[in-house]
Design a protein that fits this description.
The complex is a heterodimer of chains A (258) and B (267). A two-stranded antiparallel sheet of chain A has the order 1-2. Chain A has one domain (50-251). Chain A has 258 residues and is mainly α. In chain A, 72% of the residues lie in helices and 2% in strands. Chain B is built from 12 helices and no strands. Chain B starts with a helix and ends in a 6-residue tail after the last helix. Chain B is 72% helix and 0% strand. In chain B, helix 2 crosses helix 7. Chain B has one domain (2-261). The chains are: A mainly alpha (258), B mainly alpha (267). The interface between A and B is large, with 38 and 38 residues.
Chain lengths: 258, 267
């Protein structure tokens, strides 16, 4: 942990060398996320509600998804760009060091400019929490925390999965964007609106719905089934198979040579 | 002209090498389009009377957008060009007996077209097999189809001319990322690639339709389904021509000024 703090301060100091560039990038991130927000807003300006969810309730979903995604994208950047690490043999150096390789990849790259996106998600959350019509009590606040935690776990798992696939092939990885970027884009809305088939897929295969749609039903008192309450735990469990595949990949890793 | 053509061919053959990437890209786009349509279907269920266009027209819009994504998106830049500027390799390119603007323009156009040619056909075929109203329909008549193709190429020209302006801005700043991101997200929103322009609130919609961004995707994709027809279509296409000329002129002028001041450090 102490070592990670050291890495963190190192990254912080290095971006602070180019302050203007850093702030421009953070602002750029903010604007990018803002146009996604605008398109949600425009749609609700015309339609007012979708499948029984109001604008504010959808925003709750939007901000939880965006926040967990940007946290992951910032801190898990090393896995997101892992294919280049395999390609240029940087991973060999990582394996030689006397530390856990996940830790080293994690600490090796931290993209602080994602704070622009995070900030936006935070603002939207701040608006949506009182406006969504949820009667907040301790349980529900805890639920919200678990939604965020679950979201972080799912996206981290996806990035880990992406990196694990890089051990076997570095070609055609674009399809993973369906789950990472797609998860962010389509996760802006509760997964239930896409129909049952999609909902089932995003519950049992890639548990994106488990940190937004199902817990949201609980928060809005649309369902009080135990499954809705427990669904964020599925997200945490999702890390296990991803981690297993990563371990499998590391054991089969063959360097590309020099 | 011949040198531009051969330049074009080189880039084309180059881009055609990445077939696995194209396959993955196609799968992604197909899924993406499907999800978008399901999302719009949910909104349609909630309030069909507020839907600003026919659902079938929207489906055609989305599928064409996915099929020609590689051609019309506003976020794909040629990394070579950025590198050439920041590393100073631009000196070599300047030695070639052809204008730099033309060189880069052809390079970017060829790359975009090659990627799109490889990807669009399967996506279009799949999309047209989908059941009504989720699939891609044929344009209402031949004239519309001709106008669509014309408008599509104009859109390609506008997009490339727009990215050229961004490249040239790089001459002035070392780190172009901020400018690039701001320009890209403005274009994404206002070209109708996040949300078709008819879904915008009134007032904003009319304003957005006048901007150069609307010429990048909005016009051709709406002309195809006949949603934009008659006088409105002619007006849209004329705006495309106007913006193409304006952006070309702006780019060339900026390039001319930038090149006068370019200093390549060492070699």
């Amino acid at each position: 942990m102490k070592l990670y703090a050291k890495f963190f301060s190192m990254h912080l100091r290095s971006v602070m060398q180019y302050k203007t560039s850093f702030f421009l990038m953070a602002i750029g991130q903010f604007i990018t996320a803002f146009s996604a927000f605008l398109s949600v807003w425009f749609l609700f300006d015309k339609f007012h509600q979708v499948d029984g969810f109001t604008f504010q309730q959808v925003l709750l979903c939007f901000s939880v998804t965006l926040m967990s995604f940007s946290l992951c994208e910032g801190f898990f950047r090393g896995f997101d760009t892992f294919s280049s690490m395999v390609r240029n043999r940087e991973f060999d150096r990582v394996l030689l060091r006397p530390r856990n390789e996940i830790f080293l990849v994690l600490a090796g790259k931290i993209e602080l400019s994602k704070i622009g996106r995070l900030f936006q998600a935070f603002l939207v959350l701040l608006y949506a929490v009182p406006a969504s019509g949820v009667e907040w009590n301790l349980q529900r606040v805890l639920m919200l925390v678990f939604m965020l935690l679950g979201g972080v776990c799912v996206f981290c798992g996806l990035f880990l999965l992406y990196a694990a696939i890089c051990f076997f092939t570095v070609e055609g990885l674009e399809f993973m964007n369906i789950f990472t970027d797609g998860g962010r884009e389509f996760g802006s809305y509760p997964m239930g609106i896409y129909g049952d088939g999609i909902l089932r897929f995003f519950t049992f295969v890639v548990p994106l719905a488990c940190f937004q749609y199902w817990p949201l039903l609980y928060l809005l008192e649309k369902s009080d089934s135990l499954w809705c309450m427990l669904s964020p735990l599925v997200c945490i469990a999702f890390l296990l198979p991803c981690w297993a595949l990563w371990r499998f990949g590391v054991r089969h890793y063959q360097s590309t040579g020099s | 002209m011949k040198k531009y053509l051969s330049f074009f061919r080189i880039r084309f053959v180059n881009a055609l090498q990445y077939r696995a990437a194209a396959l993955a890209g196609m799968a992604t786009q197909f899924f993406w389009g499907g999800m978008l349509l399901l999302m719009f279907a949910a909104f349609y269920r909630s309030a069909p009377e507020s839907f600003p266009m026919e659902f079938q027209e929207l489906s055609s819009y989305i599928w064409l957008q996915q099929a020609f994504l590689a051609m019309l998106n506003s976020w794909a830049f040629e990394n070579d060009i950025f590198e050439a500027i920041s590393t100073g390799n631009i000196a070599y390119e300047l030695c070639r007996p052809m204008g730099l603007y033309g060189q880069w323009f052809v390079k970017a156009t060829a790359n975009r077209m090659a990627r799109a040619v490889l990807r669009c056909v399967p996506t279009l075929v799949f999309a047209s097999l989908l059941p009504y109203p989720y699939g891609l329909s044929l344009p209402p008549d031949v004239a519309t189809a001709v106008l669509f193709v014309f408008s599509l190429f104009l859109a390609l020209g506008v997009v490339v001319a727009f990215t050229m302006v961004i490249y040239i801005i790089t001459f002035y700043t070392i780190s172009p990322t901020g400018v690039r991101m701001a320009a890209t997200s403005a274009a994404e929103l206002l070209s109708g690639s996040l949300l078709p322009l008819p879904f915008f609130p009134d007032g904003l919609r009319q304003a957005a339709e006048l901007l150069p961004f609307a010429s990048m995707q909005n016009v051709p994709l709406r002309v195809y389904s006949g949603e934009l027809s008659g006088q409105a279509a002619v007006w849209g296409v004329s705006l495309q021509v106007f913006w193409l000329i304006a952006l070309l002129a702006l780019g060339m002028w900026m390039m001319h000024r930038a090149l006068r001041r370019v200093v390549v450090q060492g070699g």
